[in-house]
């Protein structure tokens, strides 16, 4: 999820040259440009989230560079939890056969992601799609839209994260981690009390 930086956007061509236009104040110099299918290009910071598939509870919610590679970040995070994870679901950005076979071979983790159309020319690609995109796996993947995808939106709503609260990588790194932990604790409490793990805003904010 991309979150707009506090302050004005620093145009790509000026940022690349390290030039701050005259009159432009309060720039977050450490923010980066990233592309969102929903909102287009955003100058700001990114977040990375893992969510439990069966029980809708945030696994992690962390800062990441807005320009960073989400799939490589997913791979890095997932391999820490191979004792608990058998399948990982991600959008079509994760359609990467090298990562697919690596996760399966080295970590015994099945990656599920929609394969890109027309990208089934090689034998290895056809094998990947045959193994991954079965009828039962497609049925499981469809549930992602109601269990996984809305989770970052929930955090964004609770903390009104249309724009970053602070400037700089380090500041946002810790504030995002704190937000994720607060939501995680509230969701776990709600789950234990057999309440909705989505209706936790008042628990998190203490109101």
Structure in words:
It is built from nine helices and six strands; from the N terminus they run E-H-E-E-E-H-E-H-E-H-H-H-H-H-H. It has 207 residues and is an alpha+beta fold. The chain has one domain. Strands 1, 2, 3 and 4 form a four-stranded antiparallel sheet that branches. It has a two-stranded parallel sheet with strand order 5-6. It starts with a strand and ends with a helix.
Low-confidence stretches: none
User: pLDDT average, as an integer?
Assistant: 91
Total beta strands: 6
User: Strand portion, in percent?
Assistant: 15-25%
| Form type | globular
SSE sequence, one letter per element: EHEEEHEHEHHHHHH
Number of domains: 1
What does the radius of gyration come to? Answer: 19 Å
> Can you give the helix content as a percent range?
40-55%
So how many helices? 9
Largest sheet: 4 strands, antiparallel
| Beginning-to-end CA distance, first to last residue | 26 Å
Structural class, from helix and strand content?
A: alpha+beta
Gist of the model:
The protein is an alpha+beta fold and 207 residues long. It is 42% helix and 16% strand.
Characteristics of this structure?
9 helices; 207 residues; alpha+beta
Topology:
Elements (H helix, E strand, L loop, with lengths): L1 E3 L7 H6 L14 E5 L3 E12 L6 E8 L4 H9 L8 E3 L7 H11 L2 E3 L10 H10 L2 H8 L1 H4 L2 H9 L10 H24 L8 H5 L2
Parallel strand pairs: 5-6
Antiparallel strand pairs: 1-3, 2-3, 3-4
């Amino acid at each position: 999820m991309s979150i707009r930086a506090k302050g004005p956007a620093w145009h790509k061509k000026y940022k690349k040259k390290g030039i701050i236009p005259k009159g432009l104040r309060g720039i977050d110099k450490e923010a980066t440009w990233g592309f969102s299918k929903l909102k287009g290009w955003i100058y700001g910071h990114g977040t990375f989230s893992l969510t439990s598939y069966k029980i809708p509870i945030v696994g992690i919610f962390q800062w990441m560079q807005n320009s960073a590679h989400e799939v490589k970040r997913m791979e890095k995070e997932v391999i820490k939890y191979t004792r608990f994870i058998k399948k990982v679901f991600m959008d079509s950005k994760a359609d990467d056969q090298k990562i697919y076979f690596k996760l399966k071979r080295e970590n015994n983790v099945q990656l599920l992601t929609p394969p890109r159309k027309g990208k089934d020319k090689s034998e290895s690609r056809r094998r990947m799609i045959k193994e991954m995109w079965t009828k039962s796996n497609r049925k499981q993947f469809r549930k992602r839209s109601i269990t996984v995808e809305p989770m970052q939106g929930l955090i964004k709503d609770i903390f009104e994260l249309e724009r970053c609260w602070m400037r700089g990588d380090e500041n946002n790194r810790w504030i995002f981690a704190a937000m994720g932990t607060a939501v995680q604790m509230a969701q776990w409490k709600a789950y234990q009390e057999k309440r909705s793990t989505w209706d936790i805003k008042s628990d998190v904010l203490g109101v």
